[in-house]
Amino acid sequence: MITTKTVAWALGAVLMAGAAVAAGNNSEVQNDGPMQGLERSTERGAVRLERDFDVNKDGRVTRAEMNNVLGYRFAAATRHGPTMSLEQFMAERTAEFRKSNEAMFHRLDWNGDGKLTLAEYGAAQRVRFVQLDRDGAGFVACSVRDQATSNGRGGLSGFCRDNDTNMDGRVTRAELDAAIAKRFAQSSGGGQMMNLTQFVAGEEERYGIANVRLFRRLDTDEDGLLNLTEFAAQDEAMFDKIDKNHDGVLTPAELQPRNGRSKQHGPNES
């Protein structure tokens, strides 16, 4: 169990990050970046599908809506070509996540001064540690078995890749703190504060590595290019997973996360 001492270690992070961080960050994520993975993977996918593909804002996502958006994005990235290169894929993904990264910066900037301190920057990552350290052991195990039983939460592999610096198969609190401090120093240029431009640039650099891996997974015929079917495969799979009755429409009930809220709310929102 998570002990009082363990919770106290993360309390300052939770207070600065606010209710939005404690409940789980956006999106994205679908990403392996160190700021991602605070929501269960299906919940995160549902939030993203509604955000990206509910074109008419009626609270539902049809397969036609999703396919139209994906087709538009593919055509824009390839300039109406039949296939997408790695370079085009990387550019498309960077543009897609820039707004998410900017929104995350403002969530982490708890005092609203337009800059992140080391404590603000590390808040969400420390909350993630507490979520993954289910028995309060003081470390997160990175074994295949633990990944498979991580209570349905996504992003453990990315968390371990970012923070298991000595490659011993687990992440301790001290190891996490050191990794956070290193990333903060790299992104802030060694300064005491990190601005929005530095934060976004740092996240995009880390996403680049994850996006190369994603491109290779999607490139099922291994020709070094993505066709539209390959490009859309990840979103199609998530749609099918959420579409419980397989009617081709994601309803508000299907899109609603298990915690009973389809939208994330901050401390001043209702």
Structure description:
The strands form three sheets. This protein has a two-stranded antiparallel sheet. A two-stranded antiparallel sheet has the order 2-5. The protein has 270 residues and is mainly alpha-helical. The chain has one domain. 59% of the residues lie in helices and 5% in strands. The protein is built from eleven helices and six strands.
Give the biggest sheet. Answer: 2 strands, antiparallel
Number of domains: 1
Q: Into which percentage range does the β-strand content fall?
A: 5-15%
Q: Strand-and-helix sequence, N→C?
A: HHEHHEHEHHEHEHHEH
Coarse morphology: globular
* First-to-last CA distance: 31 Å
Number of β-strand runs: 6
The mean pLDDT is: 79
Q: Biggest sheet: strands side by side, in what order?
A: 1-6
Question: Which regions have little confidence, pLDDT < 50, spanning 5+ residues?
Answer: 1-40, 144-154, 259-270
- The class by helix and strand makeup works out as mainly alpha
Number of helices: 11
Radius of gyration over C-alpha positions, nearest whole angstrom: 19 Å
Helical fraction equals 55-70%
Keywords:
mainly alpha, two-stranded antiparallel ribbon, two-stranded antiparallel sheet, 5% strand, 270 residues, 59% helix, disordered N terminus
